[in-house]
Each structure stands twice: as C-alpha cells, then as structure tokens.
Amino acid sequence: MSVAIVSFLVFGTSQVGTPGPANMVLMATGARFGFWAALPFVAGVVLGKQLIIWPIGFGLMELASAAPGIFSALKWMSAAYICWLAWKVANMRLAVGAVRADPPGFLAGLIVHPLNPKAWAMIVAGFANFVTPGTPALQATAVIAICLLALQIILHPIWTLAGDRIAQTVAGSSAEKYLMWTLAALTVLSVFFVLFGGGSA
C-alpha cells in the first residue's frame, strides 16, 4: 500500500511543466505586469491546486460517479471561465513605461486551478495510476499534494519569468499583439485538448 513517488514525479513534471491554461495565464501575467509583481498571483495558483487534491483524495470522485451531470456542467463552466481569461489576455497590451493597472493578486490566483479542467484531469489520473489500491486516503493524498506543490513551486515561476522576459523583447513593437493573441490561442487550445482528449495541467 503506497504511492509510486518517482513515477508520479515524472508524470507530474510532464504535466505541470508543459503548456496548459494555468501556465499560459501565468506567462501572460508575467508579460503584462512583470515577474516580481506577479508573484502573489503565482503563489495563489500554486496553492489553489491543493483545493482540488484533498477533496479528490478523500472521495470526491465517488460523488462524481453518483452525479455525473453536475460534474459535466462544472467542467464546461470551468472551460468557459478559462476561455474568458484567454480573451482578456488577447486584448492585453504590455505598455512598458506606462502606468500599469494593479496586477492580479493571491485570491485571483487561488481560483485558477479549481476552474481548470486540466488540473482535475491530471489529479484524477495521478490517484488512479500511481496509488496502490488500499493505500490510506491520508497517506495517498498527502504524498500527491506534497509532490505537486514542490513541482509547482519550481515550474510555475519559470513560466511567469518567461513571460516577463519575452515582454521585455516585444513590448511596444508590432509583435506585441501577436504574442498576446498567441498566448490566448494556446490557452483555449489547451482547454479543448483536455475536454476532447487529455493532457497537462
């Protein structure tokens, strides 16, 4: 009775580190507001995944089996929210040197993963594929939670920093709007990839 930690870490790295709605939003936030100003938002995104992991670990998916219609509706509502964020990203301008609006804060970041269908898919796959049947719920959930927290602390800031660095190159140039539209398009595509296929968080 255990969790395959090494295998799960490899799986988690492939999921947390690759493009998905959360990473696209982090990159766009870093591009728009800068790395340091975005850190409270990053912290919220990191901790927000814990709001999914623990309920799933203690049996939320059993409720999903009993009421599939509710969870299907929540999935599409979540996808709509992520697409709305993508629309906002597409219309952002980096405005280096100008007065910037306030960056999104910790609470705004906290709801990104609970409304991210990719995060749900990844966590369910983690419990289903890397936890030995019969493992106590507390043990399994704590291991999954700690592993993902560690990966997010490392990988989410990298995406945010990448947005910051890219912005410094393209802000104010003709390439700026294409960058923001590309980030938005990748966000939407990543959502639809999960809804109709499967993928990273």
Walkthrough of the structure:
The protein is mainly α. 75% of the residues lie in helices and 0% in strands. The protein is built from 10 helices and no strands. α1 packs parallel to α9 (137-170) and α2 (21-33) runs parallel beside α6 (68-90). The longest helix is centred in the last third of the chain and has 34 residues, at 137-170. The protein starts with a helix and ends in a 5-residue tail after the last helix.
Report the β-strand fraction as a percent range. under 5%
Which percent bin holds the helix content? Answer: over 70%
Mean pLDDT level: 81
Report the major sheet.
Answer: none
Number of strands: 0
Number of helices: 10
Order of helices and strands: HHHHHHHHHH
Brief characterization of the structure:
The chain is built from ten helices and no strands. By secondary structure, the protein is an all-alpha fold.
Distinctive features:
10 helices; globular; mainly alpha; 201 residues; 75% helix
SSE topology:
Layout: H1 5-16, H2 21-33, H3 35-48, H4 50-57, H5 60-66, H6 68-90, H7 106-110, H8 117-130, H9 137-170, H10 176-196
Helix pairs in contact: 1-9, 2-3, 2-6, 2-9, 2-10, 3-9, 4-8, 4-9, 5-6, 6-10
